[in-house]
Amino acid sequence: MEGATRLLHCAGALVLVSLNQSAGQPADPPGRTEDVADKDDAFVVFDHVQKSYDGETLVVKDLNLTIAKGEFLTMLGPSGSGKTTCLMMLAGFETATHGEITLDGRPINQVPPHKRGIGMVFQNYALFPHMTVGENLSFPLEVRGMGKDEREVKIKRALDMVQMGAFAARRPAQLSGGQQQRIALARALVFDPKLVLMDEPLGALDKQLREHMQFEIKHLHESLGITVVYVTHDQGEALTMSDRIAVFNDGRIQQLAPPADLYERPDNSFVAGFIGENNKLPGTIEELTGDKAVVRLATGELIDATAVNVKGKGQKTLVSIRPERVEFKPEMMPQGAHTLDATVVEVIYMGDILRAVLHVAGTTDFVMKMRNTLGQTRLEPGQKIRVGWHPQDARALDPM
């Protein structure tokens, strides 16, 4: 079947398998190892990439993105934001309408999926049910013309990586969901790909197992130094695993930054609301000096905030404040804190934290998070308190 490409549907996922390569043909040479200094040195580049399915509506709008060799980059966003389409274009399952994608300096728009040297992990595992674990891992090596002895060495190494060495003779149906996901990951790594793509790989797992697998994948990435592009809509997952996160909305990257920067310094109201929990107090810019803003809230109070994407006096704004930065005990208030009157609406027990919903400055969904420590002051619905935060923890953002 030389020259043929077979399309196999497994667990609803498209798996492309090529028999183009002749026996013994080596895999593509490994990518460069130097640090990425600029766009020309990046491992993956999206250059003005657009995607439309109907010729008019752009699902991906002028995407410019560089990914370093060895980086763990997550594409994060709500459903329909364009993140999965970008991953599918990189994998070769979708074609860019405009622009160019390069991998290790090589344009790949016209390169078929099976010649890109990319491993893929799907949400539904996409394992062949009629094959054993060992046969599932052997398959991508066989179609690359690899000999039996070399295949056995690579299969053993890949299974050991994911702590599944004792399961080679089992079939997927005999494994738990977490075990199947480990095998899917091992199959993506077994042929030493240049790049591994993961499309919502943990979405089908329960919460505890999903969190455990997040750390396993993170540690595997660190130990192997592989390049990973990961797609998820789970912001906690993205914060836990990533070197950088690209936050998508409406076909565009809203912000690209390391997890701490995204959380602590969001560029706009969408990012502030999508990454973690966030309080939003509506107001109007009263004064603006450099990156310092004075905001008049809807109820008349004046507060200071860091000006992010507001332009001048009179502009509407949403002031962003993280719930864990809010205090109500006078002895815990940061120096120079702004304080406002608040009424407790409800207190929710969440184990390690207590989540208090408050009525503050005209909003009834203002949240304060408190550590559940011994001797923590109990709050009751209807109780009047005063809350405060450091002005540096307030960010004046666009009103959406």
Automatic annotation (TrEMBL):
It is an enzyme of class 7 (translocase). The complex is composed of two ATP-binding proteins (PotA), two transmembrane proteins (PotB and PotC) and a solute-binding protein (PotD). The gene is potA. One of its GO terms (cellular component) is ATP-binding cassette (ABC) transporter complex. This is Spermidine/putrescine import ATP-binding protein PotA. Its EC number is 7.6.2.11. The keyword Cell membrane applies. It comes from the Bacteria. GO terms for molecular function: ABC-type polyamine transporter activity; ATP binding; ATP hydrolysis activity. The keyword Translocase applies. It catalyses: ATP + H2O + polyamine-[polyamine-binding protein]Side 1 = ADP + phosphate + polyamineSide 2 + [polyamine-binding protein]Side 1. It comes from Neotabrizicola shimadae. Residues 44-275 form the ABC transporter domain. Part of the ABC transporter complex PotABCD involved in spermidine/putrescine import. Responsible for energy coupling to the transport system. Keywords: ATP-binding, Cell membrane, Membrane, Nucleotide-binding, Translocase, Transport. SUPFAM superfamilies: MOP-like (SSF50331), P-loop containing nucleoside triphosphate hydrolases (SSF52540). Belongs to the ABC transporter superfamily. Spermidine/putrescine importer (TC 3.A.1.11.1) family.
